[in-house]
Each structure stands twice: as structure tokens, then as C-alpha cells.
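pinned: reference chain
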Amino acid sequence: MLASLKTDGDASAMDLSRRLNCTKHNAAYHMKVLKKYDAVELVRVEQRGSTAKRVYRAKVAVEFPTEIWDTLPPVVQGMVIAAVFMTSYADAEVALVDRVYEHRPESHASWSNLEVDEEGWREILKLTDGALAATKTVLERVQARREAAGDDQPLLKVSLNMSAFILPPDARPAAERVRVEDVAKRIEGKDSLKHSPPTSD
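pinned: its C-alpha cells
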């Protein structure tokens, strides 16, 4: 439900029951739980005849603490990870198709295949965890600035994607695995690519 509120927008319990193909009772129950833990906030009430539709917004990111993640069956973990990568791809696709990416040349995208030892792998994981934690601090500062200035202007929608994972030892080079010929040619013989902001004169 939190993922749907984050990616598909504000919604009522009824809206979420339709999106997630579950009963209204089930969605309403879990909405109460999310409210109890301050994970959602009421943004408006839409009166429709004698019925009041309460629309909520997610206040927190979708995260799985280690103690919860470790209890999930492997098949569920796999589904969650697949959803993360599919969502990341969908964000990139819409940014490229709508030409938003190229109109903001400061945008960043990178891919790297690295060879490291176990200690190096742990260091990389610390870097990704640190970046995610720093992002939360940025969001807190954004909220504080908006409240101080009384700013209600629309915010920029930013897709921040981070991943670090081990490839199979016998994985073929990326240039052999990608399907688009032009992309394969660009990465042939390389182990990393990066789009960086243009340097100023």
C-alpha cells in the first residue's frame, strides 16, 4: 500500500483495494495500522453524497528492516527485488521518452562492473547505505525550508536508484548480454559508463 501511494499517488482505502486487487475491508484495516504508526497522513476528505472519501499520502519510504526482510520467504524477497528493478526501469523509460532527462543535463546515470575482494564488497555496501541515509537528511531539510517559507509550489519528482549486487562467476560480459545493438556497441570492452554534468568553463 505504501509503494502504491508513493508511485501511483494519493488514494483512499477503496482506491487501494482496486489498485491491489484486495477487499475494501482488508485495505481499510491496513490503512488504520499505517495511520497508527504515522506512516500515512490524511490530505483531504472528498464528500460524495452521504459518503466521505478520505484520501491519504505516504509519509515514509518503503523499507524492509533486516529483522523483517530475513523473515520473508525467498520467493517473496525475489518478487520485491524484481519490483524494485522494474520500477527503476519504468522511471528511466518515462524520463527518456518524455525527454525530461536531457533537459536537465545535471542528471546522473552510471553503471559499473567491478572486481573487488570481500572487504571491498562490504565497503561498497556501506557507501550505498550511507547515500540512502544522507538522502533522508536532504528530505528533512526540504520540508523544513518549505515550512519556514510557506512554500506550496510543486516539488521536483526525482528518481534515485541505487543497487549493488554480486554477478554469477560465469556471467558473460555486459556487451554480450544487452539486447539493443547500439547500446552493446557503446559498452563493448568497457566496465563502466557514466553520464555526468557538463564541466563549466
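why pinned: The chain has a mean pLDDT of 86. The radius of gyration is 21 Å.
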